[in-house]
Amino acid sequence: MAENGLISLASRYSPGETMRRLLAALSARDMTVFARVDHAANAAAAGMALRPTEVVLFGNPRGGTVLMQDQQSAGIDLPLKVLVWEDAGGTAWLSYNDPQWLAKRHGLGRKSAPAVAAMATALQALAQDVTR
Questions:
Q1: DSSP code for 108
Q2: Per-residue confidence at 10, pLDDT binned at 50, 70, 90?
Q3: Beta carbons within 10 angstroms of residue 92's beta carbon
Q4: Domain locations in the chain as residue ranges
Q5: CATH number for the domain whose boundaries are 6-131
Q6: What pTM was computed for the model?
C-alpha cells in the first residue's frame, strides 16, 4: 500500500495516447465513465498554463455500493478516479488511489474486503495495460 494512498505508473505513451488507451480499456471492461475533467483545458480557459492533466471518474455500481453500504463516507472517494498527467520532463504518468488505502481511510470492515481486493486487482491490471 502506498503511504499516501497514491499509486503512480510512468507511461511509455504520451498523455493523449495514455488517455485514449485508458478510455478504451475502461470500455472493454464495461466500466461506466461518469466524467472527464481536463484541468489543462480549464487552466487555458482561465489564461493559465498547465501541462496535460486530466482526471477520469469511472466505476461499476456493483463494486462501489458495497463499500458505501459498509461506510457511506467512502462515497467521497467514489466513483474511482484515474489521473493522467505529464511531468516537467515530459513523461506521462497514470495515478490512482490505492483501494486498500481507501479501505483504511474509511474504516471498511471485513465484509468489504473482497470488493476492495477486486478493485485493487482491477486497477493494477488496468494501469499496467494502459501504460505498458
A1: -
A2: very high
A3: 22
A4: 6-131
A5: 3.30.310.70
A6: 0.94
What's the alpha-carbon Rg for the chain, to the nearest Å?
A: 15
Strand partners, 9: 94
Instruction: Please give, one letter per residue, the 3-state secondary structure of 14-78.
Output: CHHHHHHHHHHHHHHCCCEEEEEEEHHHHHHHCCCCCCCEEEEEEECHHHHHHHHHHCHHHHHHC
User: What is the rounded average pLDDT of the residues 44-49?
Assistant: 98
C-alpha cell belonging to residue 56 = 477520469
Residue 22: which residues within 8 A CB-CB, separation 6 or more?
56, 82, 84, 94, 126, 130
Q: Please give the C-alpha separations between residue 132 and each of 12, 42, 68, 104, 122, in angstroms, as whole numbers.
A: 6, 28, 32, 29, 15
What residues contact residue 30 under an 8 Å CB cut-off, 6+ apart? Answer: 60
- Say whether pLDDT at 127 is over 80: yes
